[in-house]
Amino acid sequence: MAPTRVSPPPDSFSVPDHLTAEQLASYNTNGYLIIPNTLSPATISSLLSETHHMLSSFSLADHPMTKFSTGETSHVGDSYFLTSSSKIHFFFEEAAFSPHTGALTKAKHLAINKIGHYLHELSPPFKKATFTPLHASIARMLGFQDPRVLQSMIICKQPEIGGAVRPHQDSTFLYTNPPSAVGFWIALEDATEENGCLSFARGSHKRAPVKSRLVRKEGGGTGFEDVEGARFPAGMEVGKDEEAEEEEVEGGEEVYELGEVKSGSLVLIHGNLLHKSEKNTSGKSRFIYTFHCIEGANEYEYDEKNWLQPPEDKGFSRLFESLS
């Protein structure tokens, strides 16, 4: 008699604990990697519950009503933004305000663009979802010596008003010399073309140098300045004709591939990779959680110019140490 096959309980879920050789090769070639099913339904439910609680409970009474913008020549630069490295702050969608009166046209929980940037330490559910064996294993496989988690965000991409994000490189906003940033982007809801999923310029991490960086201005606020240090990660093999490749990027000729993913998927994003997302034109939100790592080893410089400065009490969080 054949043995009876016992079905696993509905809430059982097997999370991968490392990248395969094929996945690592794909990441190195393309500059991004989609890994499905890295969060269990129970974990996703916990993170969404935490998100909705934060959105409904934060106060408007003392909020500066800071809007989040990713313009090419300007960016958010008020103190509410600049002090968010050790806090959980809420940033509004630009389209959530009336252009005539400046008043909110949406309920506050439907008006937030993102929540950041210290969820990985101050929110227990998000801290647990950040410091995992899988993420530590990935960091080791990518060659990190001392990966530091320096920011974390919930991006809400609200229904109908979730704004487009222009093509950009994460190392522009989290610059080390040489560049080392890697994004861990986790879908809490299905991300589709209709609600503004990511798109990637495959392989652009090897041909697109990091030319500018977001810095704190001497007179206050933030702005972009030219990168004076390394523009590619240490040891990276880049295109043979770098000048020609740069002209192609600047000419807007990059082809972007849609990255539609299911809830629970993890997307790794190289710091030099050009990627973007379009406006959410649907009636469904696109909630995601993302955190970024940089190399903390001594030969990598993270200076006082960067808009995001380490929390004074402990510095940026050590990924490996937090799991020990």
**Range of helix content:** 10-25%
Question: What is the assigned CATH homologous superfamily of the domain at 21-56 and 130-149 and 156-323?
Answer: q2cbj1_9rhob like domain
Largest sheet: 8 strands, antiparallel
Structural class: alpha+beta
* Fraction of residues in β-strands: 15-25%
Rg of Cα set: 20 Å
Please count the helical segments: 8
Give the N-to-C terminal Cα separation.
Answer: 47 Å
Q: Give the overall pLDDT as a whole number.
A: 90
Overall shape: globular
Weakly predicted, low-confidence segments: 1-10
Q: What is the N-to-C order of secondary-structure elements (H for helix, E for strand)?
A: HEHHEEHHHEEHEEEEHEEEEE
Number-wise, the strands total 14
CATH topology of the domain at 21-56 and 130-149 and 156-323: Jelly Rolls
The CATH architecture of the domain at 21-56 and 130-149 and 156-323 would be: Sandwich
The CATH class label of the domain at 21-56 and 130-149 and 156-323 is Mainly Beta
